[in-house]
Write a structure and sequence with these properties.
514 residues, alpha/beta, Rossmann fold, Cytidine Deaminase, domain 2, 3 domains, 6-stranded mixed beta sheet
Length: 514
């Protein structure tokens, strides 16, 4: 195909002058609208205004510019269909061989704090998507470009004089339809939220995500992977974190780091979380970051090796020196002092992620891909108040035990089911995860805790179908238990707890994590 006439109308003007000048130097006639027209004209680039070509002015404060048969006839006419070409010739319409368009910044406007509905609506592009879709539909004859980073590549192909291959035109068409689909998905998501339906499950679900980066590899080295960002995600996250140091992230790095970040966000007091394979292996809270980290480290000094550590406070130089003593893959924190960076950047393989200060979780949709479909659910946001828990045993927990149970409850929510967590003195001392029955993680956590099980408190993510967990806890010297309750055999566990003098509370809420 040969490009004789190109229409350029872009919101993102990066590189467009250079691109347009190069096209003009090749003898391409340029058409443009509004701000793009002025932008090119100011640079001395020869360009025709679309309104001069159509003979119809822009109207409705720019809402209607390119919606005209002269423009869309020139784009949609099939060059190998005689009737199409005769029709546009009879009407004095010239073919348009290239459409260079990117759309109004709706997403950037919609996520702006305090944006009004009216402001967002005015950034809903109409003419742009219509141009893009028309050109993409007729990609056999028309080149459509929606990304500025394609400009150099397109120019190289045009200068080569060998024509644009059908495969390349098809690739750009696919990219164009993906561009308009993501744009419409963002608008739908925004309007759904403004209609108060963000928790609803629509009949057709299209979610707007934008690629952040290609990852080094997937879950295993032979798998490719990429990271995408929810375009409306607000607040700190691993996806939006700044990589201050270290080599690029892998799929597992991001997955584990996100798990660690989610756990540390449960705490308002200084907290540190160590994660391996998305499960916490050590969680600590304390009066300061150092105390929290030491408790997290000492929870399981073996498993933390090669793991991920997350903080909910800035990491200072003293903590950094402790972190530097062991091999870690990633450290995540709201920030790092200059002294901490000076220490940690001496380790070339260590990745440092700065998230900014994180708050407790907001609600969002949780997605899980299954073969043939997608499971969608409301995120499991912790809403419980330990003061509302129901004491079901003869002895209620002491204030110290209740504080420990609340700590354990915030941790066990993030451990793969079936899950048991033992805690004492502001740290986890035993974690049992991902087992097919509840007694196995109980035994695992008790074995890991060793002597520290005596006097510890136990948290379970779901109810006890039998009394065996309580009996094992009693034998280990555990003094208090928190669990959802709701089993037909609850009374057996209550009786076993009473017999051992264990305090037990029911939350009425379970936190499976599959």
């Amino acid at each position: 195909m040969q490009v004789r006439r190109a229409l350029i109308s872009v919101s993102d003007k990066a590189g467009v002058r250079e691109f347009a000048r190069a096209l003009a130097d090749m003898g391409v006639t340029l058409l443009s609208t509004g701000g793009t027209y002025e932008h090119l004209k100011e640079a001395g680039i020869p360009v025709l205004q679309v309104s001069d070509v159509t003979g119809f002015p822009e109207i409705l404060a720019g809402r209607v510019k390119t919606l005209h048969p002269t423009i869309h006839g020139g784009i949609l006419a099939r060059r190998d269909v005689a009737q199409d070409m005769e029709s546009i010739a009879r009407l004095g319409i010239d073919p348009i061989d290239m459409v260079v368009v990117n759309l109004y910044p709706f997403r950037e406007t919609a996520i702006r704090p305090g944006v009004t509905l009216e402001e967002a609506v005015e950034q809903i592009d109409i003419g742009g998507p219509t141009l893009v879709r028309a050109a993409a539909k007729n990609h056999r004859d028309v080149l459509v470009v929606v990304r500025p980073d394609r400009y150099g590549e397109v120019l190289e192909k045009l200068r080569a004089g060998e024509g644009i291959s059908p495969d390349y035109r098809r690739e750009l068409a696919w990219e164009a339809f993906a561009h308009t689909a993501a744009y419409d998905a963002a608008i739908a998501a925004f309007l759904r939220e403004r209609a108060g339906k963000q928790g609803a499950y629509p009949e057709e679900l299209t979610l707007p995500f934008k690629k952040v980066m290609d990852l080094r590899y997937g879950e295993n080295p032979h798998q490719s992977a990429a990271l995408y960002k929810d375009v409306f995600a607000a607040g700190p996250s691993v996806v939006g974190a700044e990589l201050l140091h270290g080599k690029p992230l892998s799929f597992n790095n991001v997955n584990d780091a996100a798990a660690a970040f989610d756990i540390v966000c449960e705490f308002t007091e200084p907290a540190a979380v160590a994660v391996k394979h998305t499960n916490p292996c050590g969680v600590g809270i304390g009066a300061d970051v150092m105390e929290a980290y030491r408790r997290a480290h000492d929870s399981d000094p073996t498993s933390i090796f090669g793991g991920i550590v997350a903080f909910n406070r800035t990491v200072d130089e003293a903590v950094a020196r402790e972190l530097a003593k062991i091999f870690l893959e990633v450290i995540i924190a709201p920030g790092f002092t200059e002294g901490a960076l000076a220490v940690l950047t001496q380790k070339p393989s260590l990745r440092l992620l700065r998230t900014g200060q994180a708050d407790r979780h907001d609600g969002h949709l949780d997605l899980k891909r299954v073969r043939g479909g997608l499971l969608v659910q409301e995120a499991d946001v912790l809403k419980e108040d330990p003061r509302s828990w129901r004491v079901v045993t003869e002895r209620g927990p002491t204030d110290e035990e209740l504080e420990a149970l609340w700590f354990g409850w915030r941790v066990v929510k993030h451990v793969k089911s079936n899950a048991i967590v033992l805690v004492r003195d502001g740290q986890t001392v035993g974690i049992g995860a991902g087992q097919m029955n509840r007694i196995l993680p109980t035994r695992m956590s008790i074995a890991q805790a060793g002597d520290k099980a005596k006097g510890a408190c136990l948290a379970s993510d779901a109810f006890f179908p039998f009394s065996d967990v309580v009996q094992a806890a009693a034998e280990a010297g555990i003094t208090a238990i928190v669990q959802p309750g709701g089993s037909k055999r609850d009374q057996e566990s209550i009786d076993a707890a009473n017999a051992a003098g264990i305090a037990m509370v029911f939350t009425g809420v379970r936190h499976f994590k599959h």
